[in-house]
Amino acid sequence: MARVLSLIGPPGSGKGTYGSLLATRFLNASFVSVGDILRENAAGNEHLASVLRSGALVDDALVNDAVMQNTENRAREKNLVILDGYPRTGPQSHLLAKWPVGLRPSLALQFDVPYDVCTIKLLGRRKCSICNKSINVNGVDVLGFDMPPMIPESGACKVNCNPDLDWNKRDDDTIDTIRLRMEIYHKETTPVLQYWKERRRLLSFVPYNGVKDIDKLKSLVEARLHSL
To answer: Annotated Gene Ontology MF terms (predicted)?
Structure first.
């Protein structure tokens, strides 16, 4: 049965980027983005789409069912499943008790990134409508962090895509929505962190150098998983 790693971090902390990169570093691993799952489901559900646009949290039972189904599908063929952003609330943590024992996360990885850094990164997020590549036009050089912009220097997006026309900003990446999302995150995630601390299954990491720290992060996660 696959091991499951849960990622925790505020909006803009980069947990999705680090999660997908970690999946490429581990043998036979799969990455599950909870945000992408919900946005896909919202395509035919206007109520869900409205909730996502507002920055408010989606119903816990709905999120739990969607994530468990995706995790179960991937666990059949993978050695490691990485969950981006689940559980995110106290009630979601307790819903893990309803998961099959083999599917429950073995470890939670917290990305400890300050508000100012997250805000800079969120305002710089872009998605290429042509090649679907994730891009960040903002660099960070504050509070000891050294993160350059994540802009394609080669490949199809560099050659075929127009940044002014094809690199799109998400509708919910605005100052007001970011502030709301941060407030919700800190309120709802405190009991989640406590849940993992009580079980001694929380690993915290500060990505001062952004994606350049990915191999260091991989080694820390690997060592902790092996110790469990």
So the answer is: kinase activity; nucleotide binding
pLDDT at 67: 86
Question: Which segments in the chain show pLDDT lower than 70?
Answer: none
DSSP 150-205: B--SSSHHHHH--HHHHEE--TT-SHHHHHHHHHHHHHHHHHHHHHHHHTT-EEEE
Residue 95 CA from chain centroid, whole number:
19
Two structure tokens written together for 194: 């406590």
Q: Is there a contact between 110 and 203 (Cβ–Cβ < 8 Å)?
A: yes
User: CA angle, 18 as apex, 30 and 169 as ends, to 5°?
Assistant: 105
pLDDT tens profile 39-60: 877 888 888 888 888 877 788 8
**In contact, 67 and 83? CB cutoff 8 Å:** yes
Distance CA 18, CA 208 (A): 13
The amino acid that residue 3 corresponds to is R
**Both tokens assigned to 192:** 């989640």
Which residues are registered as beta bridge partners of 83?
6, 32
Please give the Cα distance from 114 to 137 (Å, whole number). 19
Predicted model pTM = 0.86
Q: CB-side exposure of 106: number of CA atoms within 13 Å?
A: 18
Both tokens of 120, joined, read 């800079």
Burial 2-40 (b: 16+ CB within 10 A, else e): bbbbbbbbbbbbbbbbbbebbbeebeebbbbbbeebbee
Domains and CATH numbers, the chain: 3-227 (3.40.50.300)
Task: Find out whether 160 and 130 touch, Cβ atoms under 8 Å.
Answer: yes
